[in-house]
Design brief:
1 helix, 3-stranded antiparallel beta sheet
């Protein structure tokens, strides 16, 4: 069975930078994020840090981050979006075009498996 997933990354702000998350929904959203994060691998791309960060949440307290790992420090340049695919592989994008160190293979989609 084919699997298709479309990921779109948006960055925006509210008018006059007014808070979007009101107190009535703020903690419900945070709890939803924590519940998903503790059940799944969470990866965060660090564009300027040029690494991928893996977040490990405590099994006993899902509100507590036990450790974060820095992966691929400088190896791929600026790393943006990252996701674990349905096949268990890690997929992430690089965003190096327009920087001072542009290479022929910049702005790639990279797939890594346990055997990579």
């Amino acid at each position: 069975m084919p699997y298709i997933s479309v990921w779109i990354h948006f960055v925006w702000t509210t008018k006059d930078r007014e808070p979007l998350l009101t107190q009535s929904i703020r903690y419900k959203i945070f709890e939803h994020i924590r519940a998903n994060a503790s059940a799944k691998n969470i990866f965060i791309g660090a564009l300027n840090g040029r690494h991928l960060r893996r977040v490990h949440f405590s099994q006993s307290d899902p509100n507590h981050i036990e450790i974060t790992e820095h992966l691929f420090d400088g190896q791929f340049g600026r790393i943006s979006d990252a996701v674990v695919g349905p096949d268990g592989a890690l997929y992430f994008c690089t965003s190096n075009a327009g920087t001072t160190t542009v290479e022929a293979e910049d702005d790639r989609l990279i797939r890594l498996t346990n055997g990579s």
